[in-house]
Every structure is written in structure tokens, then in C-alpha cells.
Automatic annotation (TrEMBL):
Leader sequence segment: none
Protein name per Swiss-Prot or TrEMBL: Response regulator transcription factor
CDD domains: LuxR_C_like, REC_NarL-like
Domain (HTH luxR-type) ranges: 162-227
One matching Pfam family: GerE
4-aspartylphosphate modified-residue sites: D71
Keyword Transcription: yes
Length: 231
């Protein structure tokens, strides 16, 4: 009498559960393509999506997520801002950036906010799955164009507690700047950030002084250069 084969309806205890992924990008077509790449892997599963950084933070707080894959430039809250918040709220959460920006400034800021990896959208079909696997193993994944020695030097400075180049503006000022550049009024910004309109005006005045700028138009141009909004 032959023994029966494994019951397909019964979970295999030897196979770990798939990595649960949050995917955040403000372009639905991009999310659809990335989801096809990730869901084709048996150990990766997209369980939540978001089209801006604020929604990504809310989804990660509410759901059981192992890995967040974030775009950098998104409405209301950027991927970098969302990653800073997620690193505070969920230190165990792995974070990857999937971006069109082959830019050293964004790359180092991604490391600063706690990302495990940085993948270019142009080669997502080649690198993204490997980056996800590396993140779950708690290993860094850096896109091939990055200069390895610069990465090592940066991480060593962080480990030793050496001072890093100062940021021009604070996290809160950056939040206000993004919303200003998106065209929100002071009252709207105050409502979104749960602060007073006077505080919004004070942050804006501080940024103008720090950055040597004159008006809202120049703040918007700065926000574009900094990758807070798309041109």
C-alpha cells in the first residue's frame, strides 16, 4: 500500500511564511508592475499599497508588515520623511527605496533614515527581488553604480558616532516646505500637521532665512531640487 503524498491544503512547516510587503508609489502603473515582480516570488507577497508617504506610515502602523518598499518623491509626505517616521515607530521594519533618482544626495539620505537598500526603477526587474531578500537577511543592498568605498566610510562614521554633514533644515521645516511647495495655504498646512497657522508662518520665515531665499516661489524651486516634489 503506497503512502499518500503531502496534502496541498496543509501548510508546510518547513517553508517559512512569505515576507509581507508594503508598496508605496504615487503612480498606480508603477505599483502594478512592481507588484507583479514581487508576487511572482514564492517568498514575497505584497499585502498593502499606498500612494503617498503619509498613507504608507498609516498602513505600516495598522498592518502586519515586514518590509516597506518606498518611492522617494510622493505627494504630501515623501518616502524619506515616511522612512524617518517608520524607523521611529517600527524599528524592526525593513525599508527599501525604489526610485528613479540616481543621485548621491538621496542615496546618503536614504541611509541616514534607516533604509536597508536603494534600487533604481530602471533596473527593478533585475535588482528588486535580490534587494528584498537582502533586507530580510538584515544585509544592505546598494545599486551597482554606488561607490562602495563611500558607503563604507559613511556607515563607519555612523557606527562610531562621528558627526555627519548637518542638514540645512529640520524635519518639521521639511514637512512644512513640502506642503508649501504643493500649494497648500498656511491654514491647510496647520490642519494637516496639527499645529497653529502662526507656527507654520514661523517655520516658513526660518527656512527663508536659513536658505537665503526670498519668497514662496524660491522655496518651491528649492523643494524641487531637494526631491520633495516633482517638477
Amino acid at each position: 500500500m503506497t503512502s499518500a503524498g503531502p496534502d496541498p491544503a496543509r501548510p508546510d512547516p518547513a517553508r517559512p511564511d512569505p515576507t509581507r510587503i508594503l508598496l508605496a508609489d504615487d503612480h498606480a502603473l508603477v505599483r502594478r508592475g512592481v507588484r507583479l515582480i514581487l508576487d511572482s516570488e514564492p517568498d514575497l507577497h505584497v499585502v498593502a499599497e499606498a500612494d503617498n508617504g503619509a498613507e504608507a506610515v498609516a498602513r505600516a502602523r495598522a498592518g502586519d508588515i515586514d518590509l516597506a518598499v518606498l518611492d522617494i518623491a510622493m505627494p504630501r509626505t515623501t518616502g524619506l520623511q515616511a522612512a524617518r517616521e517608520l524607523s521611529r515607530l517600527r524599528p524592526d521594519l525593513r525599508i527599501l527605496f525604489l526610485t528613479m533618482y540616481d543621485n548621491e544626495q538621496y542615496f546618503f539620505e536614504a541611509l541616514r533614515v534607516g533604509a536597508s537598500g536603494y534600487v533604481l526603477k530602471s533596473v527593478a526587474d533585475r535588482d528588486l527581488v535580490d534587494a528584498c531578500h537582502a533586507a530580510i537577511r538584515d544585509e544592505p543592498f546598494i545599486y551597482p553604480g554606488a561607490v562602495t568605498t563611500l558607503v563604507r566610510d559613511y556607515l563607519e562614521r555612523v557606527r562610531l558616532g562621528d558627526p555627519l554633514p548637518p542638514r540645512a533644515i529640520t524635519d518639521r521645516e521639511e514637512e512644512v516646505l513640502k506642503l508649501v511647495a504643493e500649494g497648500h495655504t498656511s491654514k491647510e498646512i496647520a490642519d494637516l500637521l496639527v499645529i497653529s497657522a502662526k507656527t507654520v508662518e514661523r517655520h516658513r520665515a526660518n527656512m527663508l532665512q536659513k536658505l537665503g531665499l526670498k519668497d514662496r516661489l524660491e522655496l518651491t524651486r528649492y523643494a524641487i531640487r531637494a526631491g520633495l516634489i516633482e517638477p
